[in-house]
């Protein structure tokens, strides 16, 4: 029974450390006949060999139907985050793709000592020239709305992010201009 308890503890620790990925929103345009959930998943899997297994329809705020496609691995998530990887049509139907608005916190860092007078989007765009997998830049604020000298960066590639984490700094150019970074910690 001690072995069973240890197995249970190890399994729950592993499950709690798993990354939960936000869905990709697919809105099919002018579909003559309804496209099933399985048909969408099979179509994407057949083209890209991703082994996706879960998606579901939901209603939008405009009362339209859209399909939410979920990645279950880092490789799937990173592949789907690249818009150029998506097909032109799904089941011969045009569609609109909306990438996830939120990125798992494990794909984020905080850049320190970024002057609060600087525009975080301009700063982020400068960094994107060197790190193309940056998908979002957000200035951090204290309660009350005062800006901090910190900018959160979200990445679509964990490989690129991990190289930055190893250096503990992010380079704005070849090595003359660098900012200290730290892993992003969500407030609890």
Give the topology, please.
Elements: H1 2-17, E1 24-28, H2 37-48, E2 54-59, E3 65-70, H3 74-81, E4 95-98, E5 108-112, H4 120-128, E6 134-141, E7 147-155, H5 158-167, E8 169-171, E9 178-183
Antiparallel strand pairs: 1-3, 1-4, 2-3, 5-7, 5-9, 6-7, 8-9
Tell me about this structure:
With 188 residues, the chain is of the alpha+beta class. The protein has two domains: 21-98, Alpha-Beta Plaits, CATH 3.30.70.330; 105-183, Alpha-Beta Plaits (2-Layer Sandwich), CATH 3.30.70. The protein is 29% helix and 28% strand. The chain has helices at 2-17, 37-48, 74-81, 120-128, 158-167; strands spanning 24-28, 54-59, 65-70, 95-98, 108-112, 134-141, 147-155, 169-171, 178-183. The strands form two sheets. The chain has a five-stranded antiparallel beta sheet, with helices on one face. A four-stranded antiparallel beta sheet has the order 2-3-1-4, with helices on one face. A hairpin with a 5-residue loop joins β2 and β3. The relative contact order is 0.14.
């Amino acid at each position: 029974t001690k072995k069973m308890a240890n197995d249970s503890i190890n399994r729950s620790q592993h499950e709690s450390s798993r990354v939960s990925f936000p869905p990709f929103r697919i809105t099919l345009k002018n579909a003559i006949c309804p496209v099933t959930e399985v048909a969408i998943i099979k179509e994407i899997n057949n083209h890209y060999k991703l082994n996706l297994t879960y998606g579901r329809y939901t209603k939008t705020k405009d009362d339209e139907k859209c399909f939410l496609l979920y990645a279950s691995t880092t490789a799937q998530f990173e592949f789907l985050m690249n818009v150029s990887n998506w097909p032109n049509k799904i089941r011969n139907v045009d569609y609109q793709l909306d990438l996830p608005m939120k990125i798992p916190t494990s794909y984020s860092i905080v850049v320190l000592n970024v002057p609060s007078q600087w525009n975080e989007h301009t700063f982020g765009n400068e960094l994107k020239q060197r790190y193309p997998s940056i998908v979002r830049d957000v200035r951090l604020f204290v309660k009350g709305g005062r800006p901090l000298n910190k900018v959160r960066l979200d990445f679509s590639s964990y490989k690129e992010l991990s190289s930055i984490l190893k250096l503990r700094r992010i380079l704005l150019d070849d090595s003359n201009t660098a900012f200290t970074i730290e892993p992003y910690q969500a407030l609890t």
